[in-house]
Amino acid sequence: MAILKPLKITLKTPIEKIQGLRTTAKIYIKRDDLNGLLISGNKARKLEYLIADAKNHNCDTIITCGPVQSNHCRTTAAFAQHFGFECHLLLRLYGKPRKIYTGNLLIEKLLDARVNYITPAQYQQRNEIMKVYADRLKRKGKRPYIIPVGGSNEIGALGYLDCMKEMEDFIKAHKIEAVYCAVGSGGTYAGLLLGKKSLNLKIDLNGIIICDTIEYFKEKIWKICEMAIEKFNLGIEINEDDINLIDGFVGEGYGIPYPAELKTIGRLAKSGIILEPVYTGKAFYGMLNHLRKNRYKKVIFIHTGGIFSIFAFNKEITKAIG
Ligand SMILES: Cc1ncc(COP(=O)(O)O)c(C=O)c1O
Question: From start to end of the chain, where are the E strands?
Fold first, then answer.
């Protein structure tokens, strides 16, 4: 199959040098946090392909899932609204729903997404639950399209193959030695790796995991890549050694910030860049630590967005910045 044509609504994002940080390596930042359609971050690149696929399948309703403050779910709600789809979200919630909406959830509600809460135990069975949910909608005459958690499959990953293409000239001109990104469901890293291999770029691609384990993500990323290579005849080969993941920065768990990370978020804000505590805060902090042990001279950090979730962490951030 030829590569799917995306519904391109995002613009090329800039790459900037980060000012004011004292590090041995020069750090550039790919501003995907500025991506189009409600500053959607990394999920916009994936959704340009996923929504195109939903349209090609003549669907009229999108179903997806994620944690209660999922950036992916908020972006999906924005894309669904923009392209005329009904949007149903299955959000993992610990405890009871709050009476006052905040962060991504507030935006989903504003965008009229149908929000359903599921328990952490149900979330373990999310793919089955989404299928049952889709069958129910089909019986009501809807034509649902299911997007997996994080938009991370062989279709969504194409968005980050594009991102690597977008960075190719810069990487070559500036002799970039490594690219870093956060890994939360694997699709961003998988797409970047497909891009690196397709373009034969001589860089290290370093993913900082923010949940689960290296073993889990190696397998998941490898599978996404394999499926993309096969489905879209990419003509490249990827093996597990090509996948370079870094652990040690998850802290106590997914979505639980820690003081050193929050301090990094505060430091970077002084350079005019806002990171958030779930993905980019941990990944950037992880990268700074990794850089101390590596001799890279120039690297790029991909800012994958997620700004709205900082409002759901207002207490933690307030405490950290005093
Ligand atoms: C802001 C942000 N950065 C990074 C990631 C990780 O990307 P991926 O899920 O493709 O691994 C996500 C989502 O999981 C995210 O919302």
Answer: 15-17, 26-30, 61-67, 86-92, 114-118, 144-146, 178-183, 204-209, 244-246, 298-302
Active-site residue 40, yes or no? no
**Rounded to 5 degrees, what are φ and ψ at 86?**
-80, 145
Mutate to test the pocket of ligand 1, among 40, 42, 71, 246 (most ligand atoms within 8 A of CB): 42
> How do residues 164-223 score in pLDDT, each as one tens digit?
999 999 999 999 999 999 999 999 999 999 999 999 999 999 999 999 999 999 999 999
DSSP classification of residue 255: T
For atom 1 of ligand 1, which residue has the closest CA? 306
CATH hierarchy code of domain 15-41+154-321: 3.40.50.1100
CA distances from 242 to 205, 248, 278 (A): 8, 20, 25
Relative to the CA of 33, which ligand 1 atom is closest?
1
Ligand 1 binding residues, C-beta < 6 A: 41-42, 71-72, 150, 152, 182-189, 279-280, 304-306
Packed helices 280-293 and 259-269: angle between N→C axes, nearest 10 degrees: 90
Domain ranges of the chain: 15-41+154-321, 44-151
Domain 44-151, second-level architecture = 3-Layer(aba) Sandwich (3.40)
42-90 pLDDT tens trace: 999 999 999 999 999 999 999 999 999 999 999 999 999 999 999 999 9
Residue 273 pLDDT exceeds 80 = yes
Type of residue found at 219: E
The answer to whether the predicted template modeling score (pTM) of the entire model surpasses 0.85 is yes
For the CA of 152, the closest atom of ligand 1 is: 10
pLDDT tens digits for range 83-140 = 999 999 999 999 988 889 999 999 999 999 999 999 999 999 999 999 999 999 999 9
Distance 71 CA to ligand 1 centre (A): 8
